[in-house]
Design brief:
With about 210 residues, this protein is mainly alpha-helical. The protein contains nine helices and no strands. It is elongated.
């Protein structure tokens, strides 16, 4: 096998491990990552892990990076195909709900699980999780600000407040879909954001009625 072939094989192995790590952590948290379970799930020997990671913390940090990449590819990128303004803002919320509804991760949401795990544990992992979550909030705020500047949301809308509400309604799906409402939580979360945006939009025909 050529050097390029070995490098490609190593990259694929690393990505397969990270994909499994994010899926497992969405249920059991980053501390729940077990080299033995990951090795069994990916067909990788334990010794093979040390070709990619020097220790468990580096694996955990890379899992956060992978989860952020997955979030961007599955939620942010599709939303960016919608027209800028209020329609893109709603498309972002819908993409998030679709991610949950399709059961991409067995635990529903990687970041929902790990934020509770590391919110009071200072260190590199907490900092990386916080940065990813702040980036997400900031992205929503930018979409709100752009919609206001385009005249598609009412002048004077508090971008930080509206972004917080949209994010919170998306996050509640993780709890309610598993403990309370099941699939109905997706319907409630979609309708709540849609009604909020239509009420703030000078031209509500830009958005679906329901």
């Amino acid at each position: 096998m050529t050097q390029d072939g070995r490098r490609l094989r190593g990259l694929r192995s690393r990505e397969a491990i990270l994909e499994q790590a994010v899926a497992l952590a969405s249920v059991e948290g980053l501390d729940g990552l077990s080299l033995g379970r990951l090795a069994a799930a990916t067909g990788t020997s334990k010794s093979g892990f040390f070709a990619h990671w020097r220790d468990k913390e580096q694996l955990q940090l890379d899992a956060v990076e992978w989860a952020a990449r997955q979030w961007t590819e599955r939620i942010v990128a599709p939303a960016l195909q919608a027209p800028a303004g209020v329609r893109r803002l709603f498309a972002l919320h819908e993409a998030r709900l679709r991610f949950y509804g399709e059961g991409v991760l067995p635990g529903g949401c990687f970041f929902f699980t790990v934020q509770a795990e590391f919110d009071d544990r200072p260190g590199a992992l907490r900092d990386r999780v916080a940065r990813a979550m702040n980036d997400w909030q900031e992205f929503i705020r930018r979409q709100v600000t752009e919609a206001v500047s385009m005249g598609e949301l009412a002048e004077g809308v508090d971008a930080a407040q509206l972004a917080y509400e949209i994010d919170a309604l998306g996050e509640m799906v993780i709890i309610h879909s598993r403990l309370l409402d099941g699939p109905a939580s997706l319907v409630h979360a979609r309708r709540a954001v849609l009604q909020r945006l239509r009420a703030l939009c000078p031209d509500p025909t830009l958005l679906p009625e329901d």
